[in-house]
Input
Amino acid sequence: MMKTKVFKASMHFAFCIAFLASPLSATSMALGKITGDLKSPGIDLKTTGPMVIYLESTDKNFEFAAPKKNAKISQKDAKFTPALLVLTAGQTVDMPNDDDIFHSVFSYSRPNDFKFEPYPKGHSRSIKLEHPGIVKIYCSIHEKMNATIVVSPTPHHVTVNKATRFTISDVPPGRYRIRTYGFLPSQDTEVVVEAGKISSTVVTFDSKK
Output
């Protein structure tokens, strides 16, 4: 009986050691987090619209896997929803037509430019956006329809709305530039992320531009 208990205890100990040494556990422990304050002299950020905050690695060899799950921007009541979408370079976006009328989605934003011929309700079109940048999309049939897709150069991004703080979690260690897309341009900001630590920063917007 005693041998059985000792054997089980040994197996449990060995399992715990193997788990702690596994790549998955090491990866989880190696990530950091960024928290930041948003500031804009003379402007109350809590009264502004949505803003995208994303990270750009300073390492030219930075590699990542684009999300396998497709993003989505739908068409309903002659509008794109959401009007502002952020995804990762290399990620695919679906554009279903949920309207009772035809739509024809296109973009002139090179090198992510594309054009879909008109398609009816219940049908969808998809495109993989490979290049970081801002993609403005429109409908060639309804000129008032427009939306913006922010293609982030990394999977590390967040959208905030009427907020003065942001958090980006699960960031690999390294040096990053913080980029923004919204109502005002932000000043250049860099942050260093360390494994298992929280990096604090301040992003200031230039209200004069």
